[in-house]
Design a protein that fits this description.
Length: 92
């Protein structure tokens, strides 16, 4: 005899998505709907305990082309928009 089991619809709570947030200075706005943002961080060397700066450039999606060179912007991680663009600007 085959025993049938009934499955209940159990709703699991959605996981909160933790997105990375950064702040930096716009260094280029020449592309359409894209800005290049320079982010500088201060790190401490594990052995020598000296502070040093690490900088990295991110391509950020700017839908309205409203940010120009020299502006300070906040941006957040999002779905991939293109090969290099995985970030979008959030309002200040």
């Amino acid at each position: 005899m085959i025993k049938k089991t009934t499955q209940k619809n159990i709703t699991t709570p959605k996981k909160e998505v933790i997105r990375k947030k950064f702040s930096g200075v716009v260094v280029s706005d020449k592309s359409d709907k894209t800005i290049v943002v320079l982010v500088e961080r201060v790190k401490i060397h594990p052995k020598y305990n000296k502070r040093y700066t690490v900088s990295k450039k991110y391509k950020v999606h700017d839908e309205k082309n409203q940010y120009k060179e020299g502006n300070v912007v906040n941006f957040v991680e999002c779905r991939p928009i293109s090969k290099d663009k995985k970030w979008r600007v959030i309002s200040n």
